[in-house]
Amino acid sequence: MSKITIDPVTRIEGHLRVEVEQENGLITQARCGGTMARGLEVIFGDRDPRDIPILAQRICGVCPQAHATASAMAMDDAFGLKGQIPPNGVLLRDIMLAANFLQSHILHFYHLAALDYVDITAVRDYQGTDGDLKAVRDFIERGVLEPFVPRYEGDYRLSREGNIAGIRHYLGALDVRRNCHELLSLFGGKMPHQCTVNVGGVTTQVTADRVAAALSYAREIEEFVEASYLPDILMLAEAYPDCLELGAGCSRFLSYGVFSEEGLFPAGLLELEEGTLQEVDPERITEDVTRSFYDDSTNGLAPAAGQTVPREGKEGAYSWLKAPRYAGQPCEVGPLARMLVGYRGGSGVIREAVDELCSRAGIEPTALNSTLGRHAARAVETAIVARRMQQWILGLQPGEPCVLAVEVPDEGRGVGMTGAPRGALGHWVSIEEGKVASYQAVVPTTWNGSPRCSAGIPGPIEQAIEGESIKDPDNPFEVVRTIRSFDPCLACSVHVARRRGSWSATIAV
Ligand code: NFE
Ligand code: MG
Question: Residue 267: which residues within 8 A CB-CB, separation 6 or more?
């Protein structure tokens, strides 16, 4: 038996440490720990509620729009405005969140995960005329290999042409991501961390020229997804079929739904093995802190009553992530969860897109519950969002209102449950004397990357790694491939702060 420690796991967002025990190449135990502490929920305490949708974006620079959206929805609820947001405001929130989904998914696939499968050193002997590829070749020839190495070696299987195509799309994806941000900025002023989504709607104006510009960006983004992203996934499915057979997590999938288009991304809890799909009951969500660096007195609280009381160095703890549980069980969240819940939950758009990709790849939809399947599900979701978003843009009404006038209530409680690129996202707020009295965010990577709970049940990423085989303990590429397929973001999932020097007794909010 030996232990392998990967710390930090690179090409993800944030600080993740993974320890695995292996015996004769079989992983017997995995522990996933978030090693960073931050502090956003605490910072929100005692502030004007209207500041929070702006501040909450600072939980993360990759998915800030999801936090703005969830926070604005929580405030709509607490202010008594749920269901009253002007149609333009609802659509703009969807469009801006969609732009961030596209940016985030394309970032994750091309700039973080693809290098697990695409051998970038194949560009070394590139003799063609593409100026960008020649620039990468010259860069590598100078001996500057970061950010492409260090990497785990030993399992690059694409043809030379396949690798070159992957590298070309890696570069093209940089421009596409800029376009996603520019699209969002048309309505948000800037990106990351736009300035217009707030309680009551979106503080901008819809004009015909902005609609035309947004549509043109969206069409260009969709072209890239159809011409590069989906074909690249099919190329990987052909070259790495074994990656479609490993890496299943807890096989219990949770989605809160996302975007306002009726029936497109339904909410649900799918138990894949039992084949059951249930409605989501938010009352069944709790956060366990048995193996997390938080005070045991806060164990098992529902988010609406949640507290954040850090206990650095707590005996037996190994992560700054709490362990969210639904009815006591861990759940996988993310594009795979949304695609499987949508497939079972009657979304015609999802069913058609999943069936099309699966038939082109020659696989069954259940094969998506795997390391490479998570990438395929994310690509399908990207295509759906890129296509539907154009309809949402066309639904905007120039000159019509986008936001309500609001008044801060003395008291209120609210919840905003939606989807972030990485999965189900919930924000819970309570307001007292017109100020934020408490705030809790339960975030996708907190679900996926959670440590064990009081029942000893490992989190979804831990479960996905346990039982995997590794060929070479010095190059555990199987482990990082599986971890990256979840697209972890540790900034989102810890969001707890340490005040200068020591933890403050008043840190609980
Ligand atoms: Ni920092 Fe995030 C997304 C959220 S992940 S990227 O998507 O919320 O936990
Ligand atoms: Mg939290």
Answer: 255, 256, 257, 279, 280, 341, 345
